Structure formats: C-alpha cells, structure tokens
C-alpha cells in the first residue's frame, strides 16, 4: 500500500480558504446510507488561511471552521460556519490579523501612535481562542477548542457561536488539551500545564463532573484530581493527549519543551509566536508518569524510554498488574510541528517528500508498564504478559527502562489520528483501531489496524485525501467492529464534485456509501459523531 505518489498536488486544496454556508446544502448520495445512522458528524479545522493580504504561516493558524454532516433516513446534508472567536471577529472587523496564532505573529495596530504601541508591549500576550482543533461535550453543551485556556461554546444544530469560556476562571490551569477523555456518565477529564508548588511547573489533571439534577453548568464544579511533576521546573513539556483507564491516568512527558522565559517575555519586542517558544531537550528521552485515578495519588515509579514526539494516545488498558499504553509516536526529539508550516504542506510532491525525509519517523507502539516493582528483579525484564514483546527493565538506579512492541511501522507512512470504538472499549482491552494514513505528511488513506495480530485493512483511491476516521457503532452491535467509519474526503480533479463524506464498513473498510458536495472542504483535525 506504500506506492502511491501525488505528483498532481491535489492535497494543496486541503489548505485553501473557503466560504462558510448560509444554510445547509443537500449532498448527493451514491450507495446506501444505513438507515440506523442518525445524527451529526461535527468536525473542526482551519478554513481561512489569510486575512486580506496577510497570510497565516502554520497549519494550526487558519481561522476555525466548524463542519457538520447530518444523517437522517438515508439523506445527508452538509453545513459549515466560522466559529465567531475573538480572533476571527477582530480580524474581520479590522481586516488584518489581530491575534497572534500558533505560527503567525500579529503585528501591532498600524493605526496606533508610538505611545499606545509602547504601552501595549507591557500588556503581555493576548492568547488566541482560535478553536480549530476539536469539538466535545461538557454536560449538555458542546465546545470547540484549541489548546489554550479559551474554549468556545457552539450550537451543534445551527453551528452558531454562543460564548467564549476562559478555563482559568474556574480551575488552576494555563491551558487544556483538545483531547479530553469523556466517560460514559459524561465526566470529562483533561490535562494542562500549571504553576505548581514554589513556582515549579507541573501538569494538572482536571475533572469536570456530569450534569447534575440542579442543571448548573458543570464547568463551575471543575476540580484538580492530581498533579504530575515536571522534569524541568522552568520548561514544561508540550502535552497533546493522555491515557485513562478505570483506575489509572497515564501522562507521557516528551522532550518537546516550552521555554517559559521566551513564552512570558514580551513577544511584540521580537515578533514572536507560539512556535518560537518550543525547544527540544536532547538528553532526557521520554518520562512516563502514572497516577491512581480515584485517590489522585502518584505512583512513585520512574518509567523512562528513548526520545519521541507524541500527539495521540490510541488506547490504554490494565491487564494483570500491567498498564498497556498504545501510542502514535514520532521517533526523535525534533518537534514534528516544525514540518507543518503551510509552505511545506503546499509544496510540490517531490519537495514534500524531500522535507519529510528529514523529519522524525512515525511508528505506532505499545508500551507495557509494570505497576508493582520488586527490587529483587533489578536488571530483569518485568513484563510477563504472554502476548507482547514490549519490555520493562528495572535498573539499579530504580528507573524502569521501557522498550516498545511496534504495532505499525512504514517508512514515512504514519498511522495517525487514531480512533477506536470509544464508548465500549476506551480504557479496556481492545482489538481494533482506525487511523488516517499520512504519506510524507499527506493524508492519502484510511487504515484499520488489529493491534493484536497487526493485520491491516486499507481504503485508498488515487488523488483522494481523507480526514480522521470516526467509528460509529451499530445500535445492536455484538462485536467491537460492528459499525461504520466516517471520513471527509476531498478528491480535486477526480470527478465533478470536489469533496464527499465517505461511509465505510468498519469490518473490512469497504465502501458502503458516499455523499458528495459541490464545495471544497479544507483539512479538518478532530470531531465526533453526535447521535440523534
């Protein structure tokens, strides 16, 4: 499956500005949409890649566009609206980039005089609220988010923006990831950097309870469950997601660090953005931390392994005194986001390939963490599970050195944006994961992976660029993979219609139906299926 080339460069359409829709449009269905599939696929991504003549430079800078495919009685409609964040509204009002984004510095207002500009140097950074990464529920409400302290409540029916929420007002975190865990009762867990004891940096796990009978906004009842220490008191690691089981929380601390001295200095003095504040620690490797979820107690076990970048946990589960931690890793300490500038992603195919060859190599891995340690076993592998080749070796300094079992690997071919049958199998032993196949960072296939046997199933068509696959379980499912997989695909230059919603059988990744639309759809990162 690793032969496909993209000389026509159709993937560039993923990074093109589009207009929002004033009302939903009907999609043209081929095949048959299962009648049991009722509800909405909601997804987020960038939709505006420049403001007037000012370009955004990084994949994570474009202004947030919220997409919705509605499924009802075999019919499909598509709708999209820009999220009315402060960043978007002010850009529209002033016709320039006003808020500094992840990789784009917003220049001071040219209309202001030298005095007011001088004073704005001391105001500190206005943190972006550009909610382009994911959408998730808290209680009965839905929020679009990025990775800062701001989340944006949206209406999942109309896609209208309701209000901005500042998490700092409710809980002690400087930000939160776009990958909360949501338990079946509606409890939300997330992780964020914070200032810990005596000014040292730390990471807080926060819990937002489900909606109670009093109907009060659950965010008002947020609490910190546990605090993970930081390997460097001045330089927190970048954290994108974490692992959760019935009894444990797993936090993987990678060598991609945020330099707080740079982050807190006045960006306007040196024209900086968020990307400028990252650096790599070339010697620490990766540290893994485990806490007991219910007691909020850290396990005093120091897990160590060699350097990788980590964005997405696949799943985590407990087995016989071990934690199995499945991850989509990128080998090495150089920050993968360095390769996600739009100029790189929009380059011609040969140049795209040339860039990706220098980047960290992707690999899906299984790590196994022993939860009880007997000092008598120093120097030995502590993993006794029969089905894995992953090891955990107790060293004389009482650290535990981990070596992974590789569950998917192909040169410059990533299994990324992993999804599982989340409702039934999150935090539990499982067999299947669905992912987006990145070919030199270009998304060109959908992949199902059996994590036990490593068997794969692939959907791929020439010059077609899919999004993260979302698994939707059949209402009467008996097996883990009874259901469908949903993905938004763009196929510029293939047929008359530039994009479609693809429905695959989750069993064998064969096509069930597609619903074509007459408009291009730019890249989306994450989302969910909301049942009707």
Automatic annotation (TrEMBL):
Keywords: Cell membrane, Hydrolase, Iron, Isomerase, Lipoprotein, Membrane, Metal-binding, Palmitate, Sensory transduction, Vision
An annotated Gene Ontology molecular function: beta-carotene 15,15'-dioxygenase activity
A Pfam family reported for this protein in Swiss-Prot or TrEMBL: RPE65
Cofactor requirement: Fe(2+)
Compartments (UniProt record): Cell membrane
List of residues binding Fe cation: 179, 240, 312, 526
Entry EC number(s): 3.1.1.64, 5.3.3.22
Membrane topology, as annotated: Lipid-anchor
GO biological process, one term: visual perception
Reaction catalyzed: all-trans-retinyl hexadecanoate + H2O = 11-cis-retinol + hexadecanoate + H(+); an all-trans-retinyl ester + H2O = 11-cis-retinol + a fatty acid + H(+); lutein = (3R,3'S)-zeaxanthin
TM annotation in the entry: none
Predominant location category: membrane
InterPro entries noted in UniProt: Carotenoid_Oase
Cofactor comment: Binds 1 Fe(2+) ion per subunit.
CC per GO annotation: membrane; plasma membrane
Protein family: Belongs to the carotenoid oxygenase family.
Stored PANTHER family: BETA-CAROTENE DIOXYGENASE (PTHR10543), RETINOID ISOMEROHYDROLASE (PTHR10543:SF57)
Protein's name in the database: Retinoid isomerohydrolase
Organism annotation: Nestor notabilis (Kea)
